[in-house]
Design the sequence.
């Protein structure tokens, strides 16, 4: 360059050199490996355990509206299970009693009460009789699924406050009936009270008695089949 003048040939060489440098830089960039792609993180959600199948009791056959009776009965038996588990004669209601789970034992006990109710009132929650009561006082009448009396609440120290109409409600009737049976077991250590022993409440569970249905009830419960564990 002379006096600020650049010879064209020199300018071409300079541009050619600059272009070569730029192309070399681009070539180097294009050959560089791409940055690693982020690995997506998937949260692991544990599958919820499958719910246990609902226990369907015999009185529900053809009567799905009785499912709440079953739910209430099973709940009450679980609440009083510590008493029922001490019944010395519980194994009479199922040949595998001692190897059953608590849920299975509760199912056996529930069917025992279901069939006691059948022989007491034919599963009619509105049924009542005055066979052991006073005609003028319906608090002494036998009423509902387990043929209970209002006065039984005082007799068994169970201040539930149920009236005669309340005991025609199957769920309230079962609630009181299971509590009475638990009290009986606490006192006598068994469910079945044979002739000659005190403490009988249900004549259908009174072996040797006039209205005894214990053999028929046991036949129903002993035939319950459970899957092999």
Sequence:
């Amino acid at each position: 360059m002379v006096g600020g003048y650049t010879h064209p040939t020199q300018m071409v060489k300079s541009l050619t050199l600059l272009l070569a440098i730029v192309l070399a830089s681009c070539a180097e960039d294009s050959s560089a490996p791409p940055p690693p792609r982020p690995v997506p993180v998937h949260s692991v959600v544990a599958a919820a355990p499958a719910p246990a199948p609902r226990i369907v009791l015999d009185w529900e056959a053809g009567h799905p509206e009785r499912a709440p009776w079953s739910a209430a009965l099973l709940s009450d038996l679980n609440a009083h299970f510590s008493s029922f588990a001490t019944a010395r004669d519980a194994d009479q209601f199922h040949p595998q009693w001692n190897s059953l789970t608590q849920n299975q034992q509760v199912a056996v006990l529930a069917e025992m009460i279901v069939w006691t109710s059948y022989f007491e009132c034919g599963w009619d929650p509105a049924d009542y009789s005055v066979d052991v009561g006073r005609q003028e006082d319906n608090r002494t009448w036998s009423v509902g699924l387990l043929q209970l009396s209002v006065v039984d609440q005082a007799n068994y120290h169970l201040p539930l406050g149920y009236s005669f109409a309340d005991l025609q409600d199957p769920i309230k009737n079962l609630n009181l009936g299971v509590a009475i049976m638990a009290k009986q077991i606490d006192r006598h250590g068994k469910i079945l009270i044979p002739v000659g022993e005190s403490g009988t409440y249900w004549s259908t569970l009174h072996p040797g008695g006039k209205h005894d249905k214990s053999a028929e009830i046991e036949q129903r419960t002993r035939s319950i089949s459970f899957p092999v564990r």
